[in-house]
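sorry for the late reply, my laptop died twice this morning and i had to redo everyting from scratch. anyway the thing you sent over, i finally got around to it. pasting the sequence first so we're on the same page, its 259 residues, then the predicted structure underneath. double check i copied it right bc i was rushing
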Amino acid sequence: MRERLSFYVKRESFLHNLNPLTKLVLALGLTLIGFLSPWYWTPLAIIFFIIAPLSFVGKVQRDFLNAAFRLILPATGFLFIMQALFQPVGKTELFSIWFLHVTRESLAYAFENATRIFAMVSSFTIFLLTTHPSELMSDLTHRGLPSQFAYVIISTIQIIPQMQAKAQTIIAAQRSRGLDTESSLFKRAGALVPLVSPLVFGSLVEVEERAIAIEARGFTSRHTKTSLREIPDSSFDKALRWILLLLVVAIIAVKIWLS
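ok and here's the structure:
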């Protein structure tokens, strides 16, 4: 079951039971390893041998594949094409399209960057699908992170699903009033104004309402806050975070040694 105002999908899995900080460190660690590794195949290995199996471990493979094929793959594919065509590197020309010259080096450069971006976005997608925002915020504030910073992080995570949910509500309301949103391209373009205006103004109103709500809950209070639910942090979580940190350090050391 998906949360309405987040990407989180409720499941009973090993990945869901991990500490939120562990999953955040895992996403950051995989991203850093993919970007810092001196080998071009490292991001691909991360995608196929770590991220894809993790989606099955977390029982969110359907949601992950949906996001991968609808969002991540088109974006990285566009990035690959642009960099392959417009990146002026290399001299081994493979083919040309009008004034654009594609070289072996530009293809390798575009492939490496596209796979890195794919691995980064995929790792954070798994993190968002298996981590509830409130648990992440509770754990971060419990560890000493100021509430203001935790709120900024959670708001950033929730902004896209919130906008999607509100947009769907507005579209359904406008359709019930006879607004045509499914016919020709020009009519759909003309329907953007009555759709966008309520979305923008409604979001501004929600910002004010949220500010009032969190202030009423003592958000700016300097007293120590308690939580009804304690977020577990097992010895396995701590060991996994240290292993990820050591892997990142090892990758940096190898990159320096090979350079």
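The beta strands are 93-97, 100-103.
thats about all i looked at so far, will dig more tmrw
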